[in-house]
Amino acid sequence: MAPSLRIFNEESESPKLLRVGTRLDKYRIVSRLGEGGFATVYAAYDTIEDRRVALKIPESRYLENSQTIDDLQREVRIMARLNHQGILRLKDARFVDGHFVMVFPMGEETLADRITRRIARSTAVDYALQMIDAVAYAHEQRILHRDIKPENFILFDNKLIQLTDFGLARIQTTAKHVSASGTLGFMAPEQAMGHPGYRSDVFSLGLVIYRLLSGELPDYPFEAPLPGYQKLRKGLSSDFVALIRKAIDPVPSRRFRDAVAMQNAVSRIRYPLSDRSVSQQLGRPVTVSRLSQRRAA
Ligand SMILES: Nc1ncnc2c1ncn2[C@@H]1O[C@H](COP(=O)(O)OP(=O)(O)OP(=O)(O)O)[C@@H](O)[C@H]1O
Ligand SMILES: [Mg+2]
């Protein structure tokens, strides 16, 4: 009992960070990008492929416990199976010199960074449609994300947005016993009570989209008037606004049952933007073809 208590003591020594220049197999650490709940992300150079990658490396204390290793392996296997344009591809995952290294394509920035600057309405809506498409794909495969938030959407050129960190929130919570830190952030109220589900992913997704399109993050329990609501409506069709509101309903049973249902509702909206000439040009080819496949099915 005692050793695991020591391992999970949050006051234990700070995680060992890898120095710039360190070689891990064919990767060379270039810089540290940031830290999340249980891992550090580094920009690295792939010396064989001659390009930059993002390495996500869990703190070593998570590798001292067989339960968290099992959890990690299970989630990595799930991530490796996901194959979708809107989901960040896991390029590789392996042990190198005692570190567990997850390798991802290197993005330009996160959605959290991007929303601090102005985004054209049509671009923001295009992102929202790609995000819904990605989560719908995951839910179709019966996979929950559990930590949908702007930091976990990575932007690439050509206005491509990809969701990362599938299932990793589960490892964080089992390993750390997340303390009730007060703010819910993008988490659904029932998930904060320990009951994540498809509907809680829908909630988080809806809230990220609300934040993207309004510039504001409403506080639970979302009493009208919602902050930023006028801004949210600007340029959007009333159908699309209603869809976002439905996704963030505090009562789970009033939301979409999963992102597939949300995406089906989106596909029935002909014009997400109130300016129809712009709406018609929206959607990247893949999104459109997936939607039309869905309609045909
Ligand atoms: N593939 C990537 N390309 C570019 N930057 C990335 C990539 N993956 C992660 N990052 C950067 O690294 C930071 C830390 O990521 P990490 O996933 O560890 O933390 P987080 O998303 O803030 O929290 P969580 O642990 O809940 O996922 C991100 O906020 C982002 O800035
Ligand atoms: Mg993350």
UniProtKB/TrEMBL annotation:
Keyword Kinase in record: yes
Taking every annotated instance into account, which residue ranges of this chain make up the domain Protein kinase? 27-274
State the SUPFAM superfamilies in the record.
Answer: Protein kinase-like (PK-like)
Q: Which GO terms describe its molecular function?
A: ATP binding; protein serine/threonine kinase activity
InterPro entries to which the protein is assigned, alphabetical: Kinase-like_dom_sf, Prot_kinase_dom, Protein_kinase_ATP_BS, Ser/Thr_kinase_AS
Say if the entry is tagged with keyword Transferase: yes
Q: Where is the signal peptide?
A: none
EC class of the enzyme, as a word? transferase
The EC number(s) this enzyme carries: 2.7.11.1
Q: Which residues bind ATP?
A: 56
Keyword list, A-Z: ATP-binding, Kinase, Nucleotide-binding, Transferase
Source species, domain of life: Bacteria
Protein name, UniProt field? Serine/threonine-protein kinase PrkC
Q: What is the protein's species of origin?
A: Novipirellula herctigrandis
